[in-house]
Design goal:
Organism: Adineta steineri
CATH superfamily of the largest domain: Ribonuclease Inhibitor
CATH topology of the largest domain: Leucine-rich repeat, LRR (right-handed beta-alpha superhelix)
Structural class: alpha/beta
Shape: globular
Order of helices and strands: HHHEHEHEHEHEEHEEHEHEHH
Radius of gyration: 26 Å
Protein name: F-box domain-containing protein
Pfam families: F-box
Distance between the termini: 76 Å
Largest sheet: 10 strands, parallel
Number of strands: 10
Strand content: 15-25%
Number of helices: 12
CATH class of the largest domain: Alpha Beta
Strand order of the largest sheet: 1-2-3-4-5-6-7-8-9-10
């Protein structure tokens, strides 16, 4: 006869440390700390004496609660924080009464901030250069930046940055970003969600030669300042996204000629320029400059009336040729 025994875990504290770590990693650290740190010696050791990294995410919170968390939990554990997400603009000012404080977060790898204070942001970026492990930066800035180029330059000086996402409000008279002579950034993944002018793109890309992923959500061109050439190079670019783009097809062709030879994934949405609906133009562009393209995601929006609808239907039908079927790229359209 064989006998077997089974152990059933009926209490949370009976879970092994490895599982506890996984659970605490999912939960908000400040709340977890307040609930469990004084529950028993084991949880106190896990939360207070551990060297494991922690994530801090602060959004909706009262000032008294924030001040308590800041003093009792965040600052005593600043050496363990590897992710800091401050999605409340008013909390940013409270979190960094002095911009030098951020340099004490030596383990920080990811910083996400939503701020309204231009001076605070500029000073903060200068201190970020002292963080050797900061590899991911997201900035949302809702007030006017009178010199957005200074902000770009400060970001490009961050020594370990690989991922950068920006949503900025800028003054229209901020001048041109200078071309990089020798200064380059290690950024590989760049997302710019604010408006960006095509004639500034060459200078911007001169700072980020290692880009693999580029997303420009509001790329536009000026009719009296058309871009004629690019001197920067992106030999590793495989993913390019252009949402809400307002450039001409011949300007896109210029981009493709210089940057798209290794491109595998291309997302683009455009408005009004009917040349984007010329399937022959697309076939020539892809065959000439995008030989490695796998994913082609294209959306075009335009204004129609009864007399132009048939014209557009005929243009769209051109995308039903063998060129598109062989690549398993299929198109749908809607008139409304």
């Amino acid at each position: 006869m064989f006998s077997s025994t089974r152990t059933f875990i009926t209490r949370f504290e009976d879970l092994p440390n490895e599982i506890i770590y996984e659970i605490f990693d999912i939960l908000d650290f400040c709340s977890t700390y307040e609930i469990f740190s004084n529950l028993n010696r084991r949880f106190h050791q896990i939360l207070v004496l551990s060297t494991l990294s922690i994530k801090i995410d602060i959004s909706l919170i009262s000032k008294p609660t924030f001040r308590r968390h800041y003093k009792q939990i965040i600052m005593p554990n600043k050496h363990r924080i590897n992710l800091l997400h401050l999605s409340n603009p008013f909390i940013v000012d409270l979190f960094f009464p002095s911009s030098q404080i951020i340099s004490k977060f030596r383990r920080l790898e990811t910083l996400i901030i939503d701020t309204t204070t231009t001076t605070k942001l500029a000073n903060l970026l200068k201190q970020l250069t002292k963080l050797p492990n900061l590899s991911s930066l997201t900035i949302i800035h809702r007030n006017c930046l009178y010199n957005i180029n200074d902000l770009y330059l400060q970001i490009f000086r961050l020594p370990a940055l690989k991922y950068c996402k920006l949503l900025l409000s800028e003054n229209s008279n901020y001048g041109s970003l200078p071309m990089s002579v020798s200064e380059t950034s290690p950024i590989e993944h760049l997302v710019i969600k604010n408006k960006f002018c095509l004639n500034e793109l060459n200078a911007l890309l001169s700072y980020v030669p290692k880009l693999r992923y580029l997303a420009l959500n509001h790329l536009y061109s000026l009719p009296d300042e058309q871009t004629k050439s690019f001197s920067s190079s992106l030999n590793d670019l495989t993913h390019f996204s252009m949402r809400n783009s307002r450039i001409l097809f011949n300007e896109l062709e210029l981009l493709a000629k210089h940057f798209f030879h290794r491109l595998q994934i291309f997302h683009i949405s455009t408005y009004f320029d009917v040349s984007f609906l010329n399937a022959n133009h697309w076939e020539r562009l892809i065959l000439s400059y995008m030989p490695n393209l796998i994913v082609f995601d294209f959306m075009h929006t335009n204004s129609l009336n009864d007399t132009t609808q048939l014209k557009y239907e005929n243009l769209i039908q051109q995308f039903q040729s063998s060129f598109w079927f062989e690549r398993q790229w299929f198109f749908t359209y809607t008139f409304y």
